[in-house]
Amino acid sequence: MSALRMAVIGVGALGRHHARIVSQIPGVELIAVADPSEAQGRQVAESAGTKWVADHRTLIDDVDAVTIAVPTGFHHRVATDFLENGIHSLVEKPLAADLTEAVQLVQIAERIGAILQVGHVERFNPAFQAAAKLCDQPRYIRAERLSPFSFRSTDIGVVHDMMIHDIDLVLSLVRSQVSRIEAFGVTLMGPHEDVVQARLTFENGCVADLSASRVHPTTRRAAPI
Predict the structure, then answer these.
(1) Inter-axis angle of helices 38-48 and 15-23, nearest 10
(2) What's the rounded Cα separation, in Å, for the pair 19 and 215?
(3) Using CA atoms, how far apart are residues 192 and 214, in angstroms rounded to an integer?
(4) How much is the pTM?
(5) Longest dimension (CA), the chain
(6) Which of 98, 131, 145, 178 is buried deepest, with most CB atoms within 10 A?
(7) Has residue 69 got a pLDDT over 90?
(8) How far apart are CA 101 and CA 77, in angstroms?
(9) What share of the chain in percent tops pLDDT 70?
(10) Of 65, 69, 67, 79, whose CA–CA distance to 109 is shortest?
(11) E strand intervals along 4-134
């Protein structure tokens, strides 16, 4: 059986970790990493034992699947290039910059028959999976995701950058429609929100309080259980 040929597109703060992990998966060959920064790309490529290319489009004929970890504003364009050519794509969260672009990617994947996966890796955290089995009908959930400012993902706010993980986990736990959303946020470091407090109320009565900050003095996580 031939190896699955993969590439990692975008090797910044998250992409470099994707490259390292992909290079270590049995049965997978990391064909290349793609990044417009030659210095960053070559460094990651060397550490992962592969080559660097500047333009992701040069890899379309050489790969079976890709991981896309470019800035959010480029997700739609880059993922479209691969999906339209039948290449399975794992796209870092958030899937796209807005709902319209996200729906378009899903439609392309369905039309072409390619796999499109969003990088909601917290769903596969063994601790969460074990806890979820013991919490089949939650009534109240509180989750915190706090970190100091990292100077990355500045093209999106803290909801898409951090809180999105807990939103995804809460929705997978509650399995009910949201009936009410209350939220407020504060912008400190740029044009997007950096601190957010949100309350989700579900039709089945469950309430979830979510806190996210990327300007907190320390890193703190409280799982959504």
Answers:
(1) 20
(2) 28
(3) 11
(4) 0.85
(5) 53
(6) 145
(7) yes
(8) 9
(9) 98
(10) 79
(11) 4-9, 28-34, 51-53, 65-68, 88-91, 116-118
> In the chain, pLDDT over 90 holds for what percent of residues?
77
Q: How far is CA 32 from its chain centroid?
A: 20
Write out the two tokens for 7.
């590439």
- Each residue's pLDDT tens digit, 88-109: 999 999 999 999 999 999 999 9
In this structure, what token pair is assigned to residue 222?
């409280």
> Measuring CA to CA, which residue among 9, 156, 14, 157 is closest to residue 77?
9
Q: Which residue, 142, 152, 154, is CA-closest to 212?
A: 142
Distance between first and last Cα of the chain: 42
Give me the chain's average pLDDT, please: 93
Kindly indicate the confidence band of residue 84, based on its pLDDT and cuts at 50, 70 and 90: very high
Higher confidence at residue 77 or residue 13?
77
Residue-by-residue DSSP string for 167-198: HHHHHHHH-S-EEEEEEEEE--SSSS-SEEEE
- For the record, the structure tokens of 99 come out as 């709902």
Higher pLDDT, 136 or 44: 44
Contact assessment for residue 107 and residue 173, using Cβ atoms and an 8 Å cutoff: no
